[in-house]
Amino acid sequence: QTDVLTLGETMVLLNPHESGPLRHIMDFRKRIGGAESNMAIGLARLGHQTAWVSRLGADPHGQYVRDTIRGAGVDTQYVAFDADAPTGIMFKERRELGESGVFYYRDGSAASRMTPDDLPDEALANAKYLHLTGITPALSDSCRKLVQDAIHRANQHDLTVSFDPNLRFKLWDPAEMRETLLPLVEKCDIVLPGIEEGEVLLDTDDPETIAEEFRALGATEVVVKLGADGAFVASDSVAQRVESYKVDRVIDPIGAGDGFAAGYLSGRLDELSPTRATDRAAAVGALATTVTGDIEGLPTRSELAQFTNDQTDRLR
Ligand code: KDG
Fold it and tell me: Which one, 143, 252, 277, 288, has least CB within 10 Å?
């Protein structure tokens, strides 16, 4: 039995040794980067059963990505290797001044060639939740079909479907995002947008209105991420703000949203209320920002307990 099934593209991530403009950076650490696998690894660290579906290049990078995810305790039995397309690669740029960013080398990647056939019915039939992000439908037409079909089949199998918009402006433009993602949200149960994503998709920067509008579209639980200001959670029984957790120093915010999703789904799997699950999400998201990689900061149960106990005074 799988608690959470997810699918998406994961790339080799080249993470700069130092911060500064990428053109001057000579040394990198090799890691993996992929929103959905980050989320699956976060859940696995917390003791949940997760499976990640994808396609990788039949190349050393694909092997490395698969081995890393499998080594973190995620079921990779549904991962395929494509002999005709490469594994994607991305570079992170960390800037002390100005915005940090990413550079992608993923056009035509193996993952971008996924189709609905990459997701076997058997994988869905054995799972409780399906988690998707707005990155996959931006990769190609066949990936868009995969996401639409996955949601449709997950609904037939009675899975709870969670969705993180994860808008990537380097992959598509806002009009296309709205046109593609809003109809998907109608068929999802849980939606986890960042405040800026709500603004792009719904044209309002009020967290309460964003939550209401996603719920009016069909989602039952919406958690709007507000960064250092915490999160706003809305369900049939609650509409409230939850405080953020403080960390000494934010090293890299990339990956925080994936940790947040892992914390939220972990809480709901443990039958915490949406508010308590949001609190766990905020804690895991905060810990993810304390390291340069996307997954190294994701906590085990005992690390999470230690971190949250240290900050009980901040709780209501
Ligand atoms: O959420 C972090 C991820 O965005 C990053 O590691 C890579 O999945 C990724 C993407 O497509 O941007």
Answer: 252
- One-letter amino acid at 85 equals A
**Six-digit token string for 228:** 């250092």
DSSP for 62-100, please give it: HHHHHHHHHHTT-B-TT-EEETTSPPPEEEEE--SSS--
pLDDT of 306 over the 50 cut: yes
Q: Are 269 and 40 in contact (CB under 8 A)?
A: no
| pLDDT score recorded for residue 254 | 81
Specify the residue for token string 């290049």. 57
Distance from the CA of 312 to the center of ligand 1, in angstroms?
31
- The complex scores an ipTM of 0.93
Q: In order of start, what are the domains of the chain with their CATH numbers?
A: 2-314 (3.40.1190.20)
SS (H, E, C) 107-141: CCCCHHHCCHHHCCHHHHHCEEEEEEECCHHHCCH
Pocket of ligand 1 (CB under 6 A): 33-35, 38, 102, 135, 168, 254-255, 257-258, 294
Rounded to whole angstroms, how far apart are CA atoms 115 and 179? 20
251-262: pLDDT as tens digits: 777 889 999 999
CA 57/CA 63 separation, integer angstroms: 8
pLDDT at 316: 43
